[in-house]
Design a protein that fits this description.
The protein is α/β, with parallel strands linked by helices. It has 8 helices and 12 strands. The chain has 2 domains: 120 residues, Rossmann fold (3-Layer(aba) Sandwich), CATH 3.40.50.2300; 73 residues, Arc Repressor Mutant, subunit A. Bound molecules: calcium ion.
Length: 245
C-alpha cells in the first residue's frame, strides 16, 4: 500500500522572476497546489537562496537583473551540490533557437511567456514525477482505504466515487493518513508531512492546528469521518473496518 519516495508531501519551489506581477501569479498558483514557494527577483538572490536551502524545483526566468537566467542555470549545473536540482525555464523570447539553447544549458523543461498558470503547474508536477520516479504512469499513485480513494498524481480524493472538496492542507493530511493505513501517526509526524514543519520544532499551537484540520476532514468524510481515529495522547490513524468497501 505504501510507496516510498524522496519527494516530500510539500515540495519546495524557488521562483526566480523580477517581474512582481508574474512572480506573484506563479507563487499563488503553486501555493494553491500545495507547494512551498520562495520568490526572489535577481540572479544573485537566486544563487544565495539555493545555497541556503536546496529547493526541489527552480522556476527560472531568463531575463533577470544582476545575472541572466542562463548564467544562473550554468552556475547551478556546474556546482556539484546543486547540479541535479530540476529547473523549469521561463522565457519571453519565442525563437526556436532559444529553446534549444536553453535545453542545452540544462533546463529540464521550458515555458514561453505568456503561459497559463495551469500549464506551469502541470509542468512542475511532470518534472518532479520524472525526477523522483514516484509515478510510473500519468495516472500516478493511488491509495485506497475502503471507499476512500486518493489519487496523488491527479490531486483528487474520492469517497464512494464522489470527489471530495478538500483544501490543499486537508488533501495532504488525508494523503499522509491513507499512505499508512491503520498505523497511528503523531500530530508531530502529521505536521511534518502535511504542513512541511521542520522536525524538532515544537509548538503546541501547531499541534492544535492538526486537531482542527482533522475535525474538518472528518466532517467532509461524513459517515466515514469516524474512520479517522483519535489515539489518545498520541495522534491519529485511518482505519476502515473490514467488510466496508
Ligand atoms: Ca524577467
Amino acid at each position: 500500500m505504501t510507496s516510498e519516495s524522496t519527494l516530500p508531501l510539500v515540495p519546495r519551489v524557488l521562483v526566480v522572476e523580477d517581474e512582481p506581477d508574474i512572480a506573484a501569479l506563479i507563487a499563488y498558483q503553486l501555493t494553491r497546489e500545495g507547494f512551498r514557494v520562495e520568490t526572489v527577483g535577481s540572479g544573485p538572490d537566486a544563487l544565495a537562496a539555493i545555497d541556503r536551502e536546496l529547493p526541489h524545483l527552480v522556476v527560472l526566468d531568463r531575463m533577470l537583473p544582476g545575472l541572466s537566467g542562463d548564467e544562473v542555470l550554468l552556475r547551478i549545473r556546474s556546482e556539484p551540490s546543486t547540479a541535479k536540482v530540476p529547473v523549469l525555464v521561463l522565457t519571453a523570447r519565442r525563437e526556436q533557437e532559444d529553446r534549444i539553447e536553453g535545453l542545452q544549458l540544462g533546463a529540464d523543461d521550458y515555458l514561453t511567456k505568456p503561459f497559463s498558470p495551469r500549464e506551469l503547474v502541470l509542468r512542475a508536477h511532470a518534472i518532479l514525477r520524472r525526477m523522483h520516479g514516484t509515478e510510473s504512469s500519468p495516472g500516478g499513485r493511488v491509495f485506497r482505504a475502503g471507499p476512500i480513494r486518493v489519487d496523488i498524481g491527479a490531486h483528487r480524493a474520492e469517497l464512494n466515487g464522489v470527489e471530495l472538496d478538500l483544501t490543499p492542507t486537508e488533501f495532504r493530511l488525508l494523503r499522509a493518513l491513507i499512505e499508512r493505513p491503520g498505523r497511528t501517526q503523531s500530530r508531530r509526524q502529521l505536521l511534518e508531512k502535511a504542513w512541511a514543519v521542520e522536525p524538532g520544532v515544537s509548538d503546541r499551537l501547531h499541534t492544535r492546528t492538526v486537531d482542527m484540520h482533522v475535525r474538518r476532514l472528518r466532517a467532509k468524510l461524513g459517515v466515514g469521518g469516524r474512520w479517522i481515529q483519535t489515539v489518545r495522547g498520541f495522534g491519529y490513524r485511518l482505519k476502515v473496518p473490514e467488510g466496508i468497501e
